[in-house]
Specification:
156 residues, 8 strands, globular, 5 helices, four-stranded antiparallel β-sheet
């Protein structure tokens, strides 16, 4: 049995799953490499495959230039499109040399359907992370709204 990269086990998607389930999910993946500044996924494109960053650093960018986040090994790319099957919500661009595990959405969804206990854990993990991001975005919007309502706030 070959040893899987720790990043397969250290991503939030599989948190709480037994090793055998993680290995089964990993068996669906193909590993791909990207060079610095190469686009892994493009905002607006159709595609629902999921990526797990195994090595390197990736910038998550919206609107062509606004950097939302910088992620590394163990991070997941494409979870929103996996769930809603809509075009990609952001660019993912390699900041360094990057190795990812690409998991085809159709195969992953089939596994989640056939093994509902695994699917439940994965969806619960996705929900927790997406809810956290929504709360963070809501707080940021609230702060921006307050600043727009009172442009003199904090200035004396």
């Amino acid at each position: 049995m070959s040893t899987l990269s720790e990043s397969y086990y250290r991503n939030y998607l599989v948190h709480g799953l037994p090793g055998e389930s993680v290995r089964q999910i990993a068996s669906l993946a193909t590993e791909e490499g990207f060079i610095m500044n190469e686009t892994i996924v493009k905002q607006g494109e159709k595609g629902s495959d999921l990526y797990i960053v195994l090595e390197g650093t990736v910038n998550i960018i919206v609107g062509g230039s606004d950097k939302l986040n910088e992620i590394g090994p163990g991070s997941v790319i494409g979870e929103i499109a996996l769930i809603d099957d809509q075009p990609r919500s952001a660019d993912a661009v390699a900041k360094t040399r990057v190795k990812v595990a690409r998991i085809p959405a159709k195969e992953l969804r089939n596994l989640m359907w056939e093994q509902k206990d695994v699917g439940f854990v994965m969806l619960a993990n996705l929900s927790r992370v997406l809810c956290g991001r929504l709360r963070q975005a809501s707080a940021m919007i609230d702060t921006l709204m307050d600043a727009a309502a009172d442009p003199w706030a904090g200035q004396i």
